Please model this.
Amino acid sequence: MTTTLWLGISANGMIADKNGEEDFLSEETGELFVQQVQKTGCVIMGKTAYSRINKNLPGRKSSLQQVDKIFLSKTSHQGIDEWLSAGSPQESIEMLASRGHKNITVTGGTKTASSFLTANLINEVVLAINPVLISPGYPICTDEKLLANLTLMSVQRKSNLIVVKYTVSNHI
Model:
């Protein structure tokens, strides 16, 4: 099974501004994200990202109808609409594996990225780097105990974006 952490980020590694907004991400970033989710047939995201999905992907929400979708929540385990809910990263992966998924896309904020990475559940990291610098903001991870060695697999230029793909070599 391959679990890919897919994030749109600023050139200095921020996934959101100080207010948690992602307005700086380009339209193309959203299109690439939808393509990734359609390719894997499923997505896991944090509760905050889940709550913003309607705002950030208004014209693309229908593009996600045919995929399995899970949001993480420690308090609520009831899905909304066609979304399922899981209490932990491990539970969310087990849910998708039980549905036959061999490739999984994970996205979200700092908490989600940190929780999957520190639990050693990520095999690949894809970063869509947008040409903007933001400060202050939210970085990809904040866990002080995380050190994940990455191996560069590919770099692609997409219009005004750079998309970098890594495999996770090992977690320390």
